[in-house]
């Protein structure tokens, strides 16, 4: 299994501190982010035509350690059921030292996960936390919009952009994600099913899973030394049998992220006066990452994901331009109306499959 406490303690210990901010400025930033998250909700709903089916409130604003703790909780919700099924394969294992080996392996897995999260915690601006632990009554929350205040403040300083505009711009993106899932009840279950199917798609057991995390750690070390292969971490964690599932995961994530990018920029000119300046500087900063960041981004697959997100935004833009927002929103109808990766790259195929038959009938 994974020692979740070790994951948290490792991540919190390794994460770099945020920027120096006066207490009054920090409080003002937190209050404004909460306010702007609510403002963004109205803009996103009006522009997209999506409406949440559950009540939502202001975003939760956290620091870097808080983001790590929240994500470990999310990993537990997704991974534990699959890991328990893997562990059933080892029931009755009486090999001497097996319990000790399992304890050591779980700590190693926790350290690997914590190390990855410590890096990401310094980069993430916001997130819609889709997977949360059950509440005291055993009910699963619908999700939570989270903003990482020190990262937002640090980025707006580096970009030298208007803080209020930048904060609203970020909120527009994350609020779009919240709208996607709160207006489409089946989508959360679909993503969770994909994640668990991904883990259970091979004959891997818990020890194999830990071995893959250990291989991931070796891939990290190799990349830093300059001896690792591109995409080493993703390769270490993925079996050949999982590629088809990964394509479905990539398709839904490309759609979600691309939709977020499209909305934040399309709404932006109306409510964020400096949106063009922000986007240009944000893109330039992304492309000018330092060598270590480039290594880690490549290793964690972030560069590959950015390409997918760009493809997702292009898909949304093309479909909306061709058939309008109302017909684009048919994408959220069911699992069957989601685009495949091939359709993300060729939107006309999705339009022919999902939109055009209806349009012809009318």
Description:
70% of the residues lie in helices and 3% in strands. It is built from 16 helices and three strands. Helix 2 packs across helix 10. The radius of gyration is 21 Å and the shape is globular. With 362 residues, it is mainly alpha-helical. About 8% of the residues have low confidence. A three-stranded mixed β-sheet has the order 1-3-2, with helices on both faces. This is Coenzyme F420 biosynthesis-associated protein.
> Main sheet?
3 strands, mixed
| Tally of alpha and pi helices | 16
Instruction: Trace the largest sheet across and list its strands.
Output: 1-3-2
Binned strand content: under 5%
Low-confidence spans: 94-98, 213-236
N-to-C SSE string, H for helix and E for strand: HHEHHEEHHHHHHHHHHHH
Looking at the structure, what is the overall shape? Answer: globular
Radius of gyration: 21 Å
The structure class reads: mainly alpha
Average pLDDT metric: 81
Q: What is the percent of helical residues?
A: over 70%
> Total number of β-strand segments?
3
Straight-line distance between termini: 55 Å
Protein name: Coenzyme F420 biosynthesis-associated protein
Organism: Nocardiopsis kunsanensis
Pfam families: Zincin_2
């Amino acid at each position: 299994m994974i020692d979740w406490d070790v994951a948290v303690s490792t991540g919190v210990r390794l994460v770099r501190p945020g920027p120096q901010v006066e207490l009054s400025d920090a409080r003002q930033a937190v209050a404004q982010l909460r306010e702007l998250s609510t403002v963004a909700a109205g803009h996103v709903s009006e522009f997209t035509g999506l409406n949440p089916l559950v009540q939502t409130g202001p975003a939760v604003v956290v620091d870097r350690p808080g983001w790590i703790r929240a994500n470990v909780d999310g990993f537990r919700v997704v991974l534990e059921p699959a890991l328990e099924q893997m562990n059933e394969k080892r029931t009755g294992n009486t090999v001497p030292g097996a319990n000790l080996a399992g304890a050591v392996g779980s700590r190693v897995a926790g350290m690997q996960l914590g190390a990855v999260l410590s890096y990401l915690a310094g980069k993430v601006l916001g997130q819609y936390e889709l997977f949360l632990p059950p509440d005291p009554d055993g009910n699963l929350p619908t999700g939570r919009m989270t903003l990482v205040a020190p990262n937002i403040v640090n980025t707006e300083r580096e970009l030298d952009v208007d803080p209020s505009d930048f904060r609203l711009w970020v909120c527009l993106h994350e609020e779009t994600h919240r709208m996607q899932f709160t207006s489409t009840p089946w989508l959360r279950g679909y993503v969770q099913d994909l994640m668990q199917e991904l883990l259970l798609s091979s004959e891997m057991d818990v020890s194999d899973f830990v071995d893959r995390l250990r291989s991931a750690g070796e891939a990290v070390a190799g990349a830093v030394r300059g001896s690792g292969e591109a995409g080493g971490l993703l390769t270490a964690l993925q079996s050949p049998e999982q590629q088809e599932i990964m394509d479905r995961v990539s398709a839904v994530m490309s759609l979600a992220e691309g939709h977020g990018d499209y909305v934040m920029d399309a709404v932006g000119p109306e409510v964020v006066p400096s949106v063009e300046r922000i986007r240009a500087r944000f893109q330039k900063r992304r492309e000018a990452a330092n060598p270590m960041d480039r290594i880690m981004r490549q290793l964690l697959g972030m560069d590959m994901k950015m390409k997918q997100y760009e493809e997702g935004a292009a898909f949304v833009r093309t479909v909306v331009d061709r058939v309008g927002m109302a017909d684009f929103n048919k994408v959220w109808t069911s699992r069957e109306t989601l685009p495949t990766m091939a359709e993300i790259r060729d939107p006309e195929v999705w339009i022919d499959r999902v939109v055009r038959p209806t349009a012809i009938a009318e």
